[in-house]
Amino acid sequence: MLDSRTVCLSTHSTHTLPTRTLLKRCVGVIGGIVFALLSFTAPSGAADLLDVYRKALEFDPTYAAAGYEYEAALTLPDQGLAYLLPSIDASAGRSYYAFYPNRFANYGSYTGETLGLSLRQPIFNIARFLEYSQNLVRFKLADVQHDISMQEITRRTISVYFDVLIAYDAQALVDFQKKAVLEQLEQARTWFKAGEATIGDVHDAEARYQGVLADEIEAKNTVDIRLTTLKSLTDTDYDALDRLRDDIVLPPPAPDDLNSWVTLAKEKSSVIKYNKYNVEFYHGELVKNRAGHLPVLELNAGWNQTNTQSFYSVADPITYKVVGLQLSLPIFSGGYTSAKVSESLAKLNQARQNLEGSILDVTQKLSAAFWGVKGAAARVTALQQSVRAYETALASTKMGLKAGTRTLVDILNAQQQLYSAKRGLLQARYDYIINLVALKYNSNMLSGDDILIINGWLTGTNPG
């Protein structure tokens, strides 16, 4: 099994999470298989999806920042525990007392020194207990956020990779169309000189050729832009990327039922989990602020030593200890506590609405992705048949041209139809993959295993 949690073991040390994090994220993975997969090297001159994924894990600043954010969140449970443990303070002082005018003999200037050690231990302090609980919830939030970041780096890598392939394929199809239209243009000019074609045929071929040249410029610019985006993710210039094989079988989503995906997402979706924990956090915030009206009981203990007993005479150093309980009851804070209760109640209601909104949003996205997968798979089947039909139609049109029953315009139209069908087929295949990724992403099922599966659909033959 390989996922982003596993691949983190091979990332650059600058972005490596603490040992505690790695153990938590990589538990259950068979090390030998992992390192064998990660040592895979793409064919010379071409990179595949796994290569790009590894580079993204090593370099992507957004993913690296999420790792450091999670590293900071590991301290939250300890911070929360500190609210319940005693606090100990030490103090020391040295002061010079000068009396003037010195009218009395026992009013002499002197230096006083004090030493002190104090301890405070909360016994009954609801706010502090809730601070501890809230820090645990904040850690859960950070844990879910880290899961989201790992899902996101997987999703973005696949998306950016296939954006480049789409641009490559669009450029290849434009080159195919350019070659075919140029051939027809030259043939039209030759036939026009021989009196076998009209000037209209020549002008029509020239217009189509100029249109293809414009498409060629746009296709090249799109390739450059998307390669730049890929470099911003991986810090690597790629001369070649593996493309989709033509013979891949696109399986239906598993499970092949939208309600099952929605049920799965409500249980596992990181976005929904995040909003659930957010509701828990703000509920704790409300209870904590209401506790501002309650008394606080603390244990106080101290040790002090001083060499001054009064301001008018110097005494031998004395030492005393103190142990006691202190009870404090808030009476009036200017309305601050009541205002904080009102604020936290409003934020709790906001968090509840955000939770409901996230469930609806995830459900909508799952529905769009599920039917997107189904629709793309159906389009692939239909367009494969269309391509074969248009190829046959083009061959028949060329034979008709030789027989004198078809014109050059018919040839150009047939070529355009074939070009459009091929482009639609490529787009449908990519739509299938992107929607499948979205389906798994929104149900929190996307992992590095999907990188391996999709990588198996690629071939070393490069489109660029």
What does this structure look like?
A hairpin with a 5-residue loop joins β4 and β5 (314-328). Mean pLDDT is 83; it is low at 1-44. The chain has 2 domains: 4-85 and 125-294 and 338-459, Outer membrane efflux proteins (OEP), CATH 1.20.1600.10; 86-124 and 295-329, Outer membrane efflux proteins (OEP) (Single Sheet), CATH 2.20.200.10. It is 64% helix and 12% strand. It starts with a helix and ends in a 5-residue tail after the last strand. With 464 residues, the chain is of the alpha+beta class. The radius of gyration is 36 Å and the shape is elongated. The chain is built from 13 helices and 6 strands. Strands 1-2-4-5 form a 4-stranded antiparallel beta sheet, with no helix packed on it. It has a two-stranded antiparallel ribbon with strand order 3-6. α4 packs across α7 and α7 packs antiparallel against α8. The longest helix is centred in the middle third of the chain and has 68 residues, at 126-193.
